[in-house]
Design brief:
about 325 residues; Rossmann fold; 11 helices; about 30% helix; about 20% strand; binds adenosine-5'-diphosphate; binds magnesium ion
């Protein structure tokens, strides 16, 4: 079986998926050399479902999201296919894409200051997006902006419409960015480590908010995190990413219970999860590889306590752990 034969959301794949990514490859040019940051990933996502992509820093999570939304510089090479709501995202001209970013897909970033322009108020920026896409007049767009701030539970929303982004606390700014991302009711929300920069209590509030909004608005979401315990709280499906590939994927219920890849097991052991404060976390030894220097065979092998010589022989093919749950590790067969 190949990854393509085992889509993440196979139950829904029969009805058409909202997002269908096939053999996506993203190549940067660095110091005169081609560097593959994303290597051949394939998955599907059904409408209204949450996929969580988990992996250490540098594994290619942000690049994957940016490729789906085509937010990468023109010099970056994209291969494969990204079909979103029936649109061929990698082939569309920029002008068409611009109209789809907002109503079809939008993104929440780790650092809200990247999404907001510091010289305009929060209200001006949200209502500008609404006006551009929906042709409402200024008053109606401002009213909608206030409703959006209420939806994301920003207290004193009227007052906050007139605030500049730097005048809000980190947590409120993140809520305002979520409001901006939701302004055109996207069918797919891409959330790139949206809680990482926040302190623990605010993290949980934002996480619960996203989950609630995702359900209420029946929106699909890809949630990216390096912390498995965060992802586990909201995911329907999980994909574990290492060195530009999905090394394990499947329904959250199965993957979190029966992790099949040593890397997933390592992430679980190093995740705070339900462990008591101060408990010792087992970190995965070593560092993720630089995509410019990946090894032959399984990229995780140099850090893997279960490696054998055959791990160097080739890219490990997917092995089925449970229904729709696969892990790319040759030790699964032994
Ligand atoms: N604009 C770029 N030019 C060259 N390499 C890049 C660029 N953006 C990201 N990369 C490389 O792609 C790899 C994956 O990055 P990224 O997707 O940001 O990782 P993650 O989000 O999982 O932490 C990293 O090795 C990073 O250095
Ligand atoms: Mg990232």
């Amino acid at each position: 079986m190949t990854l393509l034969d085992a889509p993440l959301t196979a139950d829904h794949a029969a009805s058409s998926p909202l997002l269908d990514v096939e053999r996506l490859k993203v190549t940067f040019r660095r110091d005169g050399k081609d560097v593959d940051a994303v290597r051949d990933i394939s998955f599907q996502l059904a409408p209204g479902k949450v996929l969580c992509i988990i992996g250490e820093s540098g594994s290619g999570k942000s690049v994957t999201l940016r490729a789906i939304m085509r937010l990468l510089p023109a010099s970056v090479r994209l291969k494969g296919r990204v079909a979103l709501g029936g649109h061929d995202m990698l082939a569309l001209p920029e002008r068409r894409l611009d109209r789809l970013r907002g109503p079809l897909v939008s993104m929440v970033f780790q650092e809200p200051m990247n999404a907001f322009d510091p010289v305009y108020t929060v209200g001006q920026q949200i209502s500008e997006t609404i006006q551009r896409h929906e042709g409402l007049d200024n008053r109606a767009a401002m009213r909608r902006s206030r409703e959006l701030l209420d939806l994301v539970q920003v207290p004193r929303s009227e007052e906050r419409l007139n605030a500049y982004p730097h005048e809000l606390s980190g947590g409120l700014r993140q809520r305002a960015m979520i409001a901006l991302a939701l302004a055109c009711k996207p069918r797919l929300l891409l959330a790139d480590e949206p809680t990482t920069a926040l302190d623990a209590t605010v993290q949980i509030q934002i996480l619960l908010l996203l989950r609630r909004l995702q359900r209420e608005l029946d929106m699909a979401m890809i949630f990216v995190t390096h912390d498995l315990s965060v992802g586990a709280q909201i995911a329907d499906e999980v994909a574990v990413m290492y060195a530009g590939r999905f090394v394990e994927s499947g329904p959250a219920s199965s993957l979190l219970r029966y992790p099949g890849h040593p890397y997933t097991m390592g992430l679980m052991a190093s995740s705070v999860g339900d462990k008591p404060p101060g408990a010792l976390l087992e970190a995965i030894p070593g560092q993720p590889p630089d995509p410019a220097h990946v090894v032959k065979g399984c990229s995780f092998a140099p850090r893997c306590s279960r490696r054998i010589e055959a791990c160097q022989d080739g890219i490990p093919p997917p092995v089925e752990i449970a229904k729709h749950h696969i892990a790319c590790c040759i030790r699964q067969r032994s």
